Amino acid sequence: MLPVRYKKQRSINVVSVAVLLVVAAAGYAGWEFARVMYQRQEAYRVLEETGSAFLHRSWLFREDQFERDGLRKRMAVQLRDVGVTDPSAETWIDLASDRAVIGVVYTAKFHWPFDVLAPIERDIQIEHTVALRH
To answer: Which of 26, 89, 101, 128 could pair with 47 as two cysteines, CB 3.0-4.6 Å apart?
Structure first.
């Protein structure tokens, strides 16, 4: 009786190609998620810096709508610099008696590889509250 001879397994087969594709897809999805989360964190940093600028001269920004609007426009420019490129993004500085709320709402896009499908869009709203001294 002859010994059984098994086929040698190839190093590249259907399973290894499938695993490689799944790992690549997961890596790309992770990259897109990290990119959007980093953009969100940078936008929050801009809001914090705007809050600090607001507190530095709060007496002026409380009373002068023109100055407050100028600060909001500078904030919008800084947001564009950190990657918030949504043309319909909205920014605001709302005043209450004891606090100021500084915020932005924009649409973030998760892109597919090679743009095979339309990007997935998510609305992101970020607010930063600054306590005002009397």
So the answer is: 128
